[in-house]
UniProtKB/TrEMBL annotation:
One Pfam family cited in the UniProt record for this chain: DCC1-like
InterPro entries from the UniProt entry: DCC1-like (IPR007263), DCC_oxidoreductase (IPR052927)
GO molecular function: protein-disulfide reductase activity
Name of the protein: Thiol-disulfide oxidoreductase
Amino acid sequence: MSKIILFDGECNFCDQSVQFILKRDHQGDFYFASLQGENGQSLLRKHEIDPATDSFIYIEDDRAYDQSTAVIKVLQQLRGMWKLIAAFSIIPKPIRDKMYQFIAKRRYKWFGKKESCRLPSPEIRKRFLD
């Protein structure tokens, strides 16, 4: 389990992002944990990330990435044209992160919060750490 994605478990946009990744991760490489869950909080502490963070976090080979870098690292590993997202890595991180933060700050307003979680199939459920 060397590729873990931490996501906001209350955010509709974040949930849709997880579903997007699941559909394109045919090898089953990624595992998931909500930031609010026990395992998510434990991983945040382990990587010395503020437990109150609401950023998308990607952990690979025991190294944590956040915000735009996390998104780019994940999309680079998906099949198809998503690998082209790597081109955005030439944009300086502070600028990429400003774009990320612009969307992140508005995600609840634009996409709402989840009232309840849908139950994944047993096969997919194994990929969730919470």
